[in-house]
Design goal:
This protein is about 45% helix and about 15% strand. It is α+β, with helices and mostly antiparallel strands. Helix 7 packs antiparallel against helix 9. The longest helix has about 40 residues.
């Protein structure tokens, strides 16, 4: 069973090509990315994928940042397979997309040259959240099929299930699944990610706290000075409470609420100065540890509607993009974050220019609900070209399907058996 990756490829748009690219992305979004020219439905392990445009911008020092095209996907490892299939399977679409960008190989260029170009334009994320680490695309699809088959079996005519005990019903279901060659896999627990990957994660799990412990005397000495400087910086902050323009809101709304899930992408400038950028690096380091080892099964600090999320610094830590795939409407998504994870939002995004005023990094900020929502909307980028491998499944559906499979194995107490049957 593979682990999951957040792949980000970014390239500068060639001068004079941004308008053409913008229109091409709109047309691509209307056609969808499941079939030709991208054919993502036939790429192995791709959960979600998107293409979107960052328009020309200017940093806080007045330096221009040219427009760029960004490709993001959430995919089962290994990376080398995904990059190869972007060329071998999705090559026509990739050529059309990045053909608008500087330095992309000429038409007909060799496969290895195009793969090398994509690899050179990879951008590393500071933190990647995966709803359930190790739950691959094939497993998600298989377990959705299993649920459908079991529901059909229980709905069959000629058997009065209410006359049977829960234990008898479960035994009958287990016998039915074991007798179906196409479902017999469900009797076994899913495979785990590779031993090498698990060993590396174990080293990270133990190693990071040990390093922090060794550095603790220095951190404790630096903490009062950092806290004081941070509070002075917060007092000087100038929040931006401007409403997003109606045109921008309409552009965003045109990309939302077509299926069960939605894509989200937002970009903003970090506040100037070493203090804020160092703080942002430290916070993202802590988030990376948390999402790898604590919030790695169906729960991001109480928010259970997110399939994937990532934080990606750009332009030498002048900007950061946050991207996610979530269930439901944007309004409910923002409310979940505010109600359950407001302190976490503040820790990260208060280092961004124009964020609602915070106190001691964690307080205030997102608690100013309307200003926070305006801030997110202003920085949100339309994602017009987006692909989902399972557009009808929420994160809750996927977790329930996994629990149904797990309940086929092992011994259950009577109450547990009744609870398991209720999932069906």
């Amino acid at each position: 069973m593979p682990h999951q990756l957040g792949v980000t490829i970014r390239a500068t748009v060639a001068p004079g090509r941004a308008a053409d690219l913008r229109e091409w992305l709109v047309q691509t979004g209307r056609r969808g990315m499941a079939e030709i020219p991208f054919d993502f439905a036939h790429l192995r392990g791709v959960h979600f994928a998107r293409l979107f445009l960052f328009e020309d911008a200017v940093d806080l020092d007045g330096q221009p940042i040219p427009a760029s095209l960004v490709y993001m996907s959430e995919v089962d490892a290994p990376l080398r397979r995904h990059l190869a299939e972007l060329v071998d399977v999705a090559g026509e679409g990739i050529d059309l997309a990045f053909g608008h960008c500087e330095g992309y190989p000429r038409p007909g260029a060799r496969r290895r040259i195009r793969i090398r170009w994509l690899r050179r334009h990879l951008v590393s994320a500071s933190a990647v959240y995966v709803n359930t680490v190790g739950r691959g695309l094939e497993q998600i699809r298989q377990e959705a099929k299993l649920r459908g088959e079991l529901q059909d079996y229980l709905d069959r005519t000629g058997h009065e299930w209410s006359a049977d005990t829960p234990e008898r019903v479960r035994t009958d279901i287990q016998t039915y699944v074991a007798g179906r060659p196409d479902l017999a896999w469900a009797i076994k627990p899913p495979a785990r990610p590779s031993l090498v990957w698990r060993a590396r994660e174990a080293v990270h799990l133990v190693g990071v706290p040990l390093v922090v412990l060794l550095l603790l005397p220095l951190l404790l000495v630096a903490l009062p000075a950092w806290a004081g400087l941070l509070r002075l910086s917060e007092r000087r902050d100038v929040p931006d409470a401007e409403r997003p323009t109606p045109e921008h809101v309409r552009a965003l709304a045109s990309c939302e609420d077509f299926v069960t899930q939605n894509p989200f992408a937002a970009i903003g400038l970090f506040k100037s100065g070493l203090l804020r950028r160092t703080t942002a690096r430290g916070v993202l380091f802590a988030i990376d540890y948390a999402v790898r080892h604590v919030y790695n099964h169906n729960d991001l600090a109480g928010v259970k509607t997110i399939h994937f999320a990532r934080w990606v610094p750009l332009d030498g830590w002048r900007r950061m993009v946050f991207a996610s795939n979530y269930d439901g409407s944007l309004e409910s998504y923002m409310d979940d974050f505010i109600d359950r994870l407001g302190w976490g939002l503040n820790a990260v995004f208060s280092n961004g220019q124009g964020y609602p005023r915070t106190r001691w990094l964690l307080f205030g900020g997102a608690q100013y609900e309307q200003d926070f929502k305006y801030y997110l909307r202003r920085h949100q980028v339309p994602v017009v070209a987006w692909y989902s491998a399972y557009p009808t499944l929420t994160a809750h559906n996927i977790e329930n399907n996994a629990r149904i499979r797990a309940g086929l194995c092992g011994d259950l107490m009577p109450a547990e058996t009744e609870q398991w049957l209720s999932l069906l």
